[in-house]
Amino acid sequence: MKQFKLPDVGEGLTEAEIVRWHVKAGDPVKVNQIIVEIETAKAVVELPCPFEGVVAALMADEGETVDVGRPIISVDDGTGTAPAPASSAAPGPAPERGQALAEDMVPTPPKEERQPVLVGYGVKMGAAKRRPRKSASTPPAGSPAPRSVQPPARQDTGPFTGESAAPSVREGVRENGAAAGAAPASGGRVATLAKPPVRKLAKDLGVDLTTLTGSGPQGSITRDDVQSAAGAVPAPAAVRAVQAGEERIPVKGVRRATAQAMVASVFTAPHVTEFLQVDVTETMDAVGRLRRLPDFAEVKVSPLLLVAKAVLVAARRYPMINSAWDEAAQEIVVKHYVNLGIAAATPRGLLVPNVKDAHAMSLPDLARALGALAETARAGRTQPADMAGGTITITNVGVFGVDAGTPILNPGESAILAFGQVRDMPWVVDGQIVPRRVCTLALSFDHRVVDGELGSLFLRDVGAMLEDPLRMLAWN
């Protein structure tokens, strides 16, 4: 029996949410078969199975947030089951899910074997191990076997139980016909079977788990049990505030990551935003000509392509705009490469993947990279690595019919450009008022790194290249 622990699929990942299982208990699995989708900070990642065998148990539910290093699935690989802890209780029925989850608390054998590191399976050797169970004192010879064992004063909890009881306690509860959701142990202490999210819900709703009869596997207490019992319990103020016509949406996944990043950015970097209206008639004409070139026959060409190219050229002219503030070292890190971030609105929320080394790409290559980035983001397949290491960002608010805004910096960057909608407007050309294609650019920058003069020069040059795209060739 082998267990697959949640790996760190991105640098610094501490937890992830189980989005969807692709297998269930009893299904055969092969090495590298996709078994689960998890949602990390802003990305949905598919995890392959590092083992071959039969799924013994799923150790985390869909929608549950799991810490890195915690087992999420056990697979019977035909090598036999893990040794059960010593217990004086009689053998119980065939293993069920709760019993399989209790195997997580079995001491790790002395001999360790490193599993192959597969895509999305990079847990380091020896990480997140359980401490050995403290065994109860051995009864004297000839004394009758106890019906239950008092849990140690402190012991690790498995993924299924919070104040966990030894398997013998659970067996004794079933044999004595005690309440399924709570098992009285010696000394008046009560052990309950409930997952951490259920315990938190009970705490928030003010429900005493020891008073409930569980309806889950092996008498475990479920969310429905807690919510049913909450009707007779005064709810906390936060819950009482919900009234008819209101809806509460849990803050997690992309929304949680976005909120944390935006708050950190606003309260860390002093933002300044400047605006510039630009006549982009020549740029729109250039987009039409590019679409007819053979090099762009199978590539989507949009005004964003030339905006991106203008930003890349201007960043080469003013390297400080492509810098980052290192608070710990009290240094400004000037980056002589550009990982160009593109803010993308997806069904899962706002994502900011970036094109790596965009400064070194030709225009057709940049067009293909932008197209692939957008397609991947819309499909919800953007990986954490695709969103790491950005240096400067563009957000295209014009696709929503918006002229301008005050964009918030992507954490770790010093500038972000908002590209507004292109629309017909009266414009003065050679002393005459004529209809032209006009848009508004908005540049937000970190005033610790970028002075007002530098921000103004950068924005002016981007605008000048969009007014006359030939300047991109002259300044590149």
Automatic annotation (TrEMBL):
Its cofactor is (R)-lipoate. Residues 1-76 form the Lipoyl-binding domain. Its EC number is 2.3.1.-. PROSITE patterns: BIOTINYL_LIPOYL, LIPOYL, PSBD. The keyword Acyltransferase applies. Keywords: Acyltransferase, Lipoyl, Pyruvate, Transferase. Coiled coil: none annotated. It comes from the Bacteria. One of its GO terms (molecular function) is lipoic acid binding. Residues 193-230 form the Peripheral subunit-binding (PSBD) domain. It holds the Pfam family Biotin_lipoyl. One of its GO terms (cellular component) is cytoplasm. Gene3D superfamilies: 2.40.50.100, Chloramphenicol acetyltransferase-like domain, E3-binding domain. Residues 78-91, 135-148 have a biased composition (Low complexity). Residues 73-170 are annotated as: Disordered. PANTHER family: DIHYDROLIPOAMIDE ACETYLTRANSFERASE COMPONENT OF PYRUVATE DEHYDROGENASE COMPLEX, LIPOAMIDE ACYLTRANSFERASE COMPONENT OF BRANCHED-CHAIN ALPHA-KETO ACID DEHYDROGENASE COMPLEX, MITOCHONDRIAL. This is Dihydrolipoamide acetyltransferase component of pyruvate dehydrogenase complex. It comes from Streptosporangium canum.
